[in-house]
Amino acid sequence: MRNMPAPVLTIDGPSGSGKGTISRHVANRLGWHYLDSGALYRAVGLAAAWSQVDLSDADDVAACAERTEIHFETGEGSAEPRVIVNGKDATHQLRMETAGAAASAIAAMPPVRAALVQKQHDFRRVPGLVADGRDMGTVIFPDAVFKVFLTASAEERAQRRYKQLKDKGVSVTLAGLLGEILARDARDANREVAPLRPAEDAVRIDTTGLGIDAVVERVLALMPSR
Ligand code: DC
Question: Per-residue pLDDT for 161 more than 90?
Answer without folding.
Answer: no
